[in-house]
Structures are given as structure tokens and as C-alpha cells.
Specification:
It contains 13 helices and eight strands. The chain is an alpha/beta fold. The chain folds into two domains: about 110 residues, Rossmann fold (3-Layer(aba) Sandwich); about 110 residues. The strands form two sheets. It has a four-stranded parallel sheet with strand order 2-1-3-4, sandwiched between helices. A four-stranded parallel sheet has the order 6-5-7-8, sandwiched between helices. InterPro entries: Cys_rich_dom. It holds the Pfam family CCG.
Length: about 230
């Protein structure tokens, strides 16, 4: 199976370690991962801000860049939701590529049939289900099933887990006061768990949450769940 890594803009620019974690994880499971250099933004920001026409060439570019891959895997629920839900409506010929695009937990569980990836992470962790993964991709408990199989992890339930963290891309800029209030609620819930780490499927949400926790001086680290899964079992 030819697997292509769709890194996404946020990960490429700010969190390259998450992309490397996905590659390490998939290679550990016996798969080779390609990285088409032609990939660029999926157009989510443009489309969600009302610039539909600017998103069209980006959807075409995505389909062309990943055309030769059997599966496209990304550590981002929001960008995968854009590709799967919106690209075929923008560019009908992108439907085939869109259908082969998976968020990491979908690919591991639904395609590879794996839940225990041989990881170890001896820390107290809570999980925030990001909105696009929860509501558009309907990931359900897939990320949690993977985390529960990690050796020595102490996974604690997050109160009000399904409530938005307040990021929402440009929402956090256009509606800063509302976004800040939502973030305050999310940070309070995370701190109440006593977790050392908060994890999620989207680094965009984790940037927002991590920033809020940092400003509060909370001893909680935000980390993508791919980086937890990529940790070796001792």
C-alpha cells in the first residue's frame, strides 16, 4: 500500500515533530510513507472565510499531488474534513482522492485494523475531541481506543469534553471575546483532571489550549496524540 503523508500547514510550519511521529508510527507498523513535495494548503481557511474561488485551485493541487497514493493520512481532523467533505463539491474530479484521505486514527483502526501500536507513555493524560473530528468525521472514540492501549498511560476523562475549545480557525480572531471565554472553560476543565498532558487530534486546537494553559501557569503540556503513539514500548 502506498501511503502519502498529508502534513497540513499548521504541522508543517509549527509542529513538524507531529509529522515525523506519524511516519515513525506507520513505519514501525511495517509501512512505507511518501511525502509529495507538491502538497500545499488544503484551502480550508479560504473556504471557511468565504473565499471559495481561492480554495478551488488548492483542491485541484491536492488531488494532483496525492493521485498516485492508495491512502492519504493526516494528523488533523479539520483538514481531513475539508478534503473529504468540501473538495468533491469544489472540484468533482477530486472525489476519488478525497475518499482515500484519512485522519490518523481512522486509518489505524478502520484500514489497518490496529489499536495497540506498541507505545508507552507513563503519564497522566486527558483527551480533547476537536470539533471537526467529532462532528464532521465522526471519529467517535477511535483516538481514545488507541490511547487506552498505550502502556503505562493514565487516561483521565475530561469534563465537558465535547465542548469546543474556542479556536475554530479564524473564529478565534473574529470573535476573540467569545473564543477567550470558551478557552477559559476548557482550560478549567483540563486543570480539574490533574493531567500532566492534554492531547487531541488537531494541533490547531492544541495551540489555542496550550497557549491558554501557559498564560495561567498551569503545569500541563499540550501534545498531539500521534506523538504519544509514536513513543516506544520499553
Amino acid at each position: 500500500m502506498r501511503i502519502g503523508l498529508f502534513i497540513t500547514c499548521v504541522n508543517d510550519l509549527l509542529y513538524p515533530g507531529t509529522g515525523r511521529a506519524v511516519v515513525r508510527l506507520l513505519e514501525r507498523l511495517g509501512h512505507r510513507v511518501g511525502f509529495p513535495l507538491e502538497q500545499t494548503c488544503c484551502g480550508q481557511m479560504h473556504h471557511n472565510s468565504g473565499y471559495r474561488d481561492l480554495a478551488v485551485p488548492l483542491a485541484r493541487r491536492f488531488a494532483a499531488a496525492f493521485r498516485g497514493y492508495d491512502a492519504i493520512v493526516a494528523p488533523s481532523g479539520s483538514c481531513v474534513a475539508m478534503v473529504r467533505d468540501v473538495h468533491p463539491r469544489l472540484v468533482p474530479e477530486a472525489a476519488g482522492t478525497a475518499a482515500r484521505t484519512y485522519e490518523l486514527s481512522e486509518f489505524l483502526i478502520d484500514v489497518l485494523g490496529v489499536t495497540d501500536v506498541g507505545a508507552r507513555f507513563p503519564h497522566r493524560v486527558t483527551y480533547h475531541p476537536s470539533c471537526h473530528g467529532l462532528r464532521l468525521l465522526r471519529l467517535g472514540d477511535r483516538p481514545l481506543r488507541l490511547l487506552r492501549a498505550v502502556r503505562d498511560i493514565e487516561l483521565v476523562e475530561l469534563p465537558g469534553a465535547e465542548e469546543c475549545c474556542g479556536f475554530g480557525g479564524t473564529f478565534a480572531v473574529k470573535n476573540a471575546d467569545v473564543s477567550g471565554a470558551m478557552l477559559a472553560d476548557k482550560c478549567a476543565a483540563i486543570r480539574a483532571t490533574g493531567a500532566e498532558y492534554v492531547t487531541a487530534a488537531d494541533n490547531s486546537c492544541l495551540t489555542h489550549i496550550g497557549g491558554g494553559l501557559s498564560r495561567l501557569g498551569a503545569p500541563v503540556t499540550a501534545v498531539h496524540y500521534a506523538e504519544i503513539l509514536a513513543g516506544r514500548d520499553a
